[in-house]
Amino acid sequence: MTEETFELDFGTFTGTVVDNKPHGFGTLIFKPDDPMGRQKYEGEWLEGTKTGQGKMTFVSGDVYDGAFLDGVPHGQGDFRYSDGQVEKASWEEGARHGLSRFLSVNGTTEEMTFIDGEANGPAKIEKSDGSVEQRQYVNGIKSGPAKLTMVNGDTIEYSYVHDEIEGEATYTWKANGAKEISHYVKGVKHGHSVEYSENGDKEERTYVSGVLQGPAVVYGQNGDRLDFTYKNGKRTGKATYVWADGSKELSLYDDQGEQTGPAKLIWHNGAQREGLKKQGQWDGEVFYTYSEGPRKGKKDKELWAEGKLIKSEKFYGQGEQWDVEDWDDLDKMDDLTKSCQPSKVKQGS
């Protein structure tokens, strides 16, 4: 074997030659107008063809380093792209065939199987945040059931149709077993959704282009019900809470999704509490009106702070008054009225 430099149809070769053909090891510099954008090949040759281990560099900066047969990738090889991404794959006559592992610059890896150049069968994607997606390919297109497992153990089960998430999806929280059943349209949540909490409550709501919008209802497992409205993903405006016994609370959600503003609680026996709530708790000056007993129609003026009663002025008519500074003081009273605020399903956002 001798080492020579001479011209081939597609570039300039420098390397070992046998019978006037590249054979052994050599370098080929492709012509600037190479239709495949090839720049240089360094590697093994067999009777004039690029066969064996070699490295192909493209004008784009992409590099293939691996096995060749008759000038094309065949066997195991790595494709290193100019943007830093790397693909380790099996090749057959220039096409991917077998297991491929793709590593992106952000740390995401994807393992899939190729048949004659197209992805087919199961695939596994490990994302940089630690989450893992398992999905299917059919003729190079994401299709069929898929499952995403978050790093905290939460899961989403859904389906791909023509590369996009479509149809029903179920999100399950590992910590408490709560679930959300929603629908996707072209990869985005859209339409009716139901969330089941760990305590048996159920919320029905609607997504519009991935954002909660419009009327929503929470049904408590104890028979309670909360009606409110979503705007841009947050509870907002008027809300009505009805207990199973018929008691009712009218309140407002502010622009931050907090139950803050005027509120009115009407017990099933007609007694009422009116005032302000701050982040879901009574706060400030509040008035309580009795509906029955010796103080029917009388009002207490209460002072609340962060959901705790600080002081209550109780009026009995004819100027008679009793100040309650603490809940323990209520034991000193003669049970002039009987009132009980029912327990509630969660109202917070």
Task: Give a quick rundown of the structure.
The chain has strands at residues 2-8, 11-18, 21-30, 38-46, 49-58, 63-69, 72-80, 86-92, 95-103, 109-115, 118-126, 132-138, 141-142, 144-149, 155-161, 164-165, 167-172, 179-185, 188-189, 191-196, 202-208, 211-212, 214-219, 225-231, 234-242, 248-253, 261-266, 272-278, 281-282, 284-289, 299-305, 308-317, 320-324. It has 349 residues and is mainly beta.
Give an overview in words:
The protein is built from no helices and 33 strands. Strand 31 (299-305) and strand 32 form a beta hairpin. It has a domain at 1-78. It starts with a strand and ends in a 25-residue tail after the last strand. It has a 33-stranded antiparallel β-sheet that branches. Mean pLDDT is 90; it is low at 318-344. The chain is rod-shaped, with a radius of gyration of 36 Å. The protein has 349 residues and is an all-beta fold. The chain has strands spanning 2-8, 11-18, 21-30, 38-46, 49-58, 63-69, 72-80, 86-92, 95-103, 109-115, 118-126, 132-138, 141-142, 144-149, 155-161, 164-165, 167-172, 179-185, 188-189, 191-196, 202-208, 211-212, 214-219, 225-231, 234-242, 248-253, 261-266, 272-278, 281-282, 284-289, 299-305, 308-317, 320-324. Keywords: Repeat. InterPro entries: MORN.
